[in-house]
Design brief:
This protein is α+β, with helices and mostly antiparallel strands. It is 22% helix and 22% strand.
Length: 627
Amino acid sequence: MKMMIVSLILCFFVTVQAGDCECTYTWQGLSYGCHECPRGCWRQEISWDFDECFYCPDGTYQPSNNNPSNAGSCQPLRTCYSPGQYIDNNNQGSVTTQRQCLSCPTGTESSSNNQLSCSIDINGCEENNGNTLCSQLDSGATCTDVPAPGTPNPYTCQCSAGYEFLGGECVDPNPCNATTCKTSGDTGAVCVDLVSPAVGHTCTCSSGYTFVGTDCVDVDECANNNPCDDFGDTSGTCSDNHPPEDGYTCTCGVGYESKVVGGVTSCHDINACENNLCAADGNTDATCYDAAAPSLTYTCGCTYGYTFDANALKCVDTNDCEGDPCNSGGDTDATCTDMPPGSNTRITCTCSAGYEFTNSTCVDINRCASNPCIGIDTAAECFDAAAPEDSYSCTCSSDRFRFDGTTCVDNDFCVSDEPCRQDGDLNSTCLDAPWDANITHTCANCSSGFTLTNDLSLCAMNAKPASKFPINFDDGTAQAVIGGAVFLLIVLIVIVCWYRRRVKKSIARSEKVLRRAEMELSSSNATRDFDDMELGGGVVYDLDSTATSDEVKALEKAKSRLELENAALRKDNQKHKQKLEKQSLSKTDSGDELKRSDAKKPEGFASEQQNTTSIQWSNDMVVDDNL
């Protein structure tokens, strides 16, 4: 029984303390069951004899003791609304007291409800329509916020040049309200305000007055300098005009005249070229050069085909055929035609055969100018034929090339396949090697019984195998073989000695022929040297004392023609000398020459002697290769 009573007491005690807010008064003075809760709490009835106290929820408060039996007895805390309010830091509110709200200071606002301060600075440009007001008249103006408290204006305007901030916007001030432009005596002056962004004003002055600074004044334009002598007339004088006349007047010296140029009056050199009299004779592109004052004349710069006539002071047509310019290049039969002014050339020349019109004369056509001989043979030489011939010839640098009438081309060593068939293989074929190869040709398709040599240059006949027979020193066969070999060796030596003797004789004959050719060449050169001496002299003629001027001119012209012919002959003689020097006779390798003669002429030295003594001269004075 005792234990039961203790348990009941503990249970009641726990029940009383089950709430989170302590009771201020229990039922009938008992220690359990709340009859009244303290401030900031509310009471809940659990049963007829058990009550509990709880703290008011967040955002509510209870200022006094109470007996309500629900949470609704707690009153809500006041809301401090943004953007115009914030919580009083000294009265922020609690579960027992109400919250106090204050208004934000001027120019600020709170970021949200129930803030402890107004931390946001209000943008005066946006809040007060400052962006629009600033640029209403000044499109280039910008609005700038004034930090809180933003007094006396919440914003200011950054105005463009010519505007000022007034009454909350950018306006164009009118300076004409304070000036009239008439203070210096110009009663008819009118003030004109400069439209922004220009600053200030200008004055429309009456005749005789000039806008200077801010007013219309009578300016003595001759006071500070003499504008009449700006262009060289040191004797020019300036006279200022008085209102209502404007400007000044120039009195000029000899060769000068008063003229307004670019709005400025001064003494200018009288331009004698104003009408361009240089073009009076048709030279429309002539340039006139005015002579400097005090002179009143001019000179002319004439174009191609005209010359300046100092007496007539104009450009006149020139006869450019005087002096026979077409003959200066050696063509004595050329004719000259003077071209009218404005043509592309001053003259044209009708040239003889072998000449061409170049640089206002007739010159020998040089067919070697473009070096037509050089193609694959970069060392080939070109020889131009003297006029009246219009041709050229090429001397190729080696036998790897040949002149085909136009240039030096690759020499085909395989004509008729001869190089490959020298050993008797008539069915072999020859392939010509490129001109820049180390060999001249290669052979192919050698017949049976022939073998291609290692250097591929010949189909050589195969050597027949020696017949085998027994050699016996006992029966004398060996001695017979040795004796026969010795005999053949002796015969071979005799043949070689005989052959060498014939070769020496052939060489002696060749040298004799060469000496004779050299003598003939020397004689020819001596004759040509003599001719040069004859041709190099001047043309001498006697004139009768009674000869007329026309006869003298005719003889002088004949003399000029003869001297030109002599010059052409000397030039031709010099060319032939150069050719003979470059193609001088030289002795060829006698062994190779004899070998070639033996291979081609089996009849012997008779034909060789006939070939070596035959000397054939071509048009270019070249000795036959058989020499």
